[in-house]
Amino acid sequence: MAEPAGSVTLQVAVDAPQHSGLAGPLDYASERALTPGSLVRVPLGKRELLGIVWPSESQPDPGFALKSVAAVFDALPPLNDEWCRLLDFAAGYYQRSVGELASAVLPPQLRELSPEQLAARLRKLDRKPASAAVAPPVRPDLAPEQALAVQRLQAQIAGAEAIKPALLFGVTGSGKTEVYLRAAEAALAAGRQVLVLVPEINLTPQLEARFTERFAALLPQPLAIVSLHSGLTPAQRLQNWLAAHLGRARLVLGTRLAVFASLPDLGLIVVDEEHDPSYKQQDGARYSARDLAVWRAHDLKVPVVLGSATPSLESWQHAESGRYERLTLASRIGGGALPRVRLFDMKALPPSAGVTTALTAPLLAELKARLDRGEQSLVFLNRRGYAPVLHCGECQWKSDCPHCSAWRVFHKRDRTLRCHHCGFTERVPRACPNCGNHDIAPIGRGTERLEEQLAEALPGARVLRIDADSTRRKGELEAQLKAVHDGEVDILVGTQMVTKGHDFRRIRFVAAVNPDGALFSSDFRAPERLFALLMQAAGRAGRDAEQDAGGASPGEMWVQTWHRDHALYQALARHDYVRFAKDQLAERQSAGLPPFAHLALLRAEARTAEAAKAFLSAAAELMHGENVLVYPPVPHAVARVADVERMQMLVEASQRGRLQTFLRSWVPALIALKRDHKAVLRWAVDVDPLSI
């Protein structure tokens, strides 16, 4: 039976999971033609879902009656062609369905509202009052290197030069944010919107404050500056997304999700700390926001700025080959010196009772000296909790997680053993559950234990710990950072959370304890991540040039290591990222690793390792004669999480296009294969994986 006379057939992208086999947009009947990008509600099975009218070359005739579009969001302008192209590319590249990806990146409240309710939200937006008038701020003078970088970006924005992605390579404290502000100013003056991406939610308010201070006078309209991230309430997120989509928000700041913001007048994209692994989504559509930002800018022919003191090796290689333009800021603002890095050789310490591997006697003496001078210090340990594991000296029991192949971490404050993978938490046992021995003790050290030991060793010192455990409740992180900025803290103890982007003006001394683990990781990216983390940590010291000029002791970083002569630490001591990158890229090239090869991981999860391995082995059999290399299935680094066994299989190709061609034919075959492997709970393809 054909459609009723007078109706048109529309293609609508809906959230049909990939494993259902419904990969593309679905056909629906409509009483009238709708512009591609229009939001609609459509029936699918017994549910009614949000859908997007998708661009289609021709009007198909299915030859049978189609379900009709249930409702149209007429009050909302359609998503434009550029946004649809971005979704199409991302869905194809990362092997997801368009509807599934669209559902994940649109504000969740859109899925719940009727057209009438959305129209009411839009009317509410119209009633927002304008900001109070403020005087334009005084802009700081630019250093010569900053001025050159700004000049290059302004030329691209004005269309005077060919557009090429810009890698802003600037040491910590060199004024990269000021370059972003000046580039944004040029784009806003040209009537364009600006998108600024940051890796972590906790950096968004800090950057938002700087952009608001600079542009409040230029953008007094309501919602002219908005943020987009998962920390907002659903209502705030919808409001800010609508402001961006309608063109009212001229400046949008956000985390990785904001790369999909609908911005009809987009004229500049900034990716701050572009090397940060947080830009890669780790579940669902495993997209890289940095890579999509570069693609989106290329598609729109607008400038994109990637900023970092330690660029990702992929971006550095693109700059070396000329695909990206490198803009270098080699010195700190105001002539401030980079902190001196001292590699502290743990092997040289005389063995003595009571000296721990974290708080050595020389480190405590240095912290005390800084304390006496009224200076702040930062002690960096990338392991939260009190201790990694509880241990029984009698029977060698350790506090492993019964549901994961990982240890549960001892948290002393609430007397719990907590698994950081599945969340399983229990009270600390009074005695060894294996042999009944009452003398069970913590081994190793986390930030919680370090905080306690510092308070004992340096009585009177105001010690504050910032990590994922101490900042669980809303507002805690902001309050703790304010205490640091206001000088109410003498020694800050923290994980990588405190090394990223924070402008701590009072910290003069940074100590990294126990960083060696990453040197010998099976993950080929571990050295790159460690170097970036230590450079970022060092960058927190001595950021105030006025203090340096006033005779304060110079900023300094200590790295306590058992491998002082390692090339990574030697490059760190010289602040020599260029040398480090050259060595790492040479290693990667000889080993055939990214950026000289292109990878995808097929992950499988099942109740037994055998079931997961059987699925991966069968998947490998599907690929005979292809121009790709497949490695044997291996367990995940943490093989069992929440009683689920995890296996993975690596696929490698010498060219990106070759890998994509293979994946396009392989993924549909995997959907069919899963039906024969009922024991497999989940499977996923991760294109350009960050960790292996």
From TrEMBL:
InterPro entries from the entry? DEAD/DEAH_box_helicase_dom, Helicase_ATP-bd, Helicase_C-like, P-loop_NTPase, PriA, PriA_3primeBD, PriA_3primeBD_sf, PriA_C
Q: Which residues bind Zn(2+) 1?
A: 392, 395, 432, 435
Cofactor annotation remark: Binds 2 zinc ions per subunit.
Q: Which CDD domains match?
A: DEXHc_priA
Keywords, alphabetical: ATP-binding, DNA replication, DNA-binding, Helicase, Hydrolase, Isomerase, Metal-binding, Nucleotide-binding, Primosome, Zinc
Indicate yes or no for the key word Zinc: yes
Any Pfam family the entry gives:
PriA_C
The UniProt record lists the keyword Acetylation: no
EC number per UniProt:
5.6.2.4
Pinpoint the Helicase ATP-binding domain residues. 157-329
Where is Zn(2+) 2 bound in this sequence?
Answer: 401, 404, 419, 422
Q: Which reaction does it catalyse?
A: ATP + H2O = ADP + phosphate + H(+); Couples ATP hydrolysis with the unwinding of duplex DNA by translocating in the 3'-5' direction
Q: Where exactly are the transmembrane stretches of this chain? A: none
**Which top EC class is named for this enzyme in its record?**
isomerase
Gene Ontology MF terms in the entry: hydrolase activity
Per the record, the domain of life is Bacteria
The coenzyme or cofactor needed here is: Zn(2+)
Family according to the record: Belongs to the helicase family. PriA subfamily.
List, alphabetically, the PANTHER family matched: PRIMOSOMAL PROTEIN N
> What does the UniProt record say this protein does?
Initiates the restart of stalled replication forks, which reloads the replicative helicase on sites other than the origin of replication. Recognizes and binds to abandoned replication forks and remodels them to uncover a helicase loading site. Promotes assembly of the primosome at these replication forks.
What quaternary structure, including any partners, is listed in this protein's UniProt entry?
Component of the replication restart primosome.
Q: What name appears for this protein in its UniProt entry? A: Replication restart protein PriA
- Native organism is Pelomonas dachongensis
Print the organism lineage: Bacteria, Pseudomonadati, Pseudomonadota, Betaproteobacteria, Burkholderiales
Q: Which gene encodes it?
A: priA
